[in-house]
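Subject: Protein entry, chain in single-letter code together with its fold tokens

Category: Structural biology, sequence-to-fold work with a learned token vocabulary.

Notation: Tokens come from a learned vocabulary of local backbone shapes, not from coordinates.

Start of record: The labelled sequence and token lines come straight after this line.
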Amino acid sequence: MTRTLYRGGRVFTASDPAFVESFVVDGDRIVCAGPAAGALAADEVVELGDGLVVPGFIDAHAHLLMLGDALGQVSLTDARSLGEIQRRIRAAREVSGGAVRGRGWLFDSVPGGAPTAAMLDEAVADVPVYLDANDYHSCWINSAALAELGITRETPDPVGGRIGRTPDGEPDGMLYETAAQQFAWAHRDATATDAQRDAAVERVVAAYLASGVTGAVDMAFDEYGLAAFARAAEQGAMPLRVAAHWFVGNADDDAENLAQVARAAELAATATPGVDVIGIKLILDGTIDACTAAMGAPYANGENAGPIWPTERLLPIVAAADRAGLQIAMHAIGDAASTLALDAIEHAMRVNGDRPRRHRIEHLEYAAPETATRMARLGVTASMQPVHADPAIFANWAAQLGDERVGRGFAWSEFEEAGAVLAFSTDAPTAPHEALANMYVASTRASALEPGLPAVQPHRALPLERALAHATRDAAASIGAGSDRGRIEVGCVADFAVLDAEPFAQGAEALLTARVVRTVIGGRTRFEA
């Protein structure tokens, strides 16, 4: 084994002390960190220069195959008008041999926030067009795609979703929540080839390594991902540490729902190449941007949305997964959804008794004031995404609520103060996957998408030291890997990233221009700029 001394820069440990000047890696472990490191004999010395070393980022909530797909699609987040969206998909059609796929469009880039198939038909009418919204909770399609999917005025809405319709009942080109999943995404999955999925895995691995990410948690794992990651592992192309939550959709039938939990338990008990299946994922509601998140009070337009999982369907699933020792991660963006999630966890604790558990709630964009304290008491992790608060996309979010609730959005510090574990992630591809951009938004509440925009609610920003700890140490703890990951500390696995800038000294703005120059996983350099 090779012993390597890293010295000469600044090292953020996410431990105590928070900073050291050097550390030593022997094989796959850190064997010394601090002043004594320089006295150890080493086979190799790496000079860090003026950069910063941080523990490897763990993207604690992401969608890996979807991100790999997205990196090969038309990007629309910065297309801030219908004309620009049309221009980009028209250009994509010129080089496409079939359907056009895009991702990341924002509702307030479309006139009236009301996308229609006719708008897309004006640009591309001869092949299907599928455009996933920035939040990936709805899909905008053209008339050719409606025909390909067989959606007509007689097609019923699926449980937990809605097909957008014109006043006279015709499909209008929008698929919301489970309608996007069961029509557009199911068709994508059924028609994609193994080669396309393998390419998606290659893209996501390369993108993460170049961003200093050493591990990720897939939050909608399925049979396609299982097979793709197994192939990558067999080919030696899976250096990332990947944990996964098996997606359980509401089939509106307890037996079918429980069968999905049983499949997750089976995988969790089996050694799976390339990934560790550790739990299940449930989507309880939608998003505030699309007015599909379940809120305790109506939106500004007077409407509201109910949960995708009603209580009578949710309780048996959560209890069964808890009993099987699976970690439960529940998507809950609105306060009514997060309250429902905690009710279900408390029910499982009552029926299953005292046992080790570390469940999670994902997103928590707006939570009732008592939620953080309740989560801390129950030992539930708050899994949140700073990039979702980027000022470039905040205006539409705020407009949908339109009242004092906006001031309590993305309240990360509430969970800190309550004593809950707070894990940061990106939810890529619903937001950029780059870890440094995520840390910039977390520590400034300013925009990484459009630098120069004024910060929104800057009083809710966190000091960079705490933000980094939530994206490394606490992200590891959120999946039960906190004993030897997420820190630069003696005995920990040598997963870390080297930056060419030092934002603690240079200011948070340095995060926008800093590069990751080296990513190390298990003591091995997996990326070098």
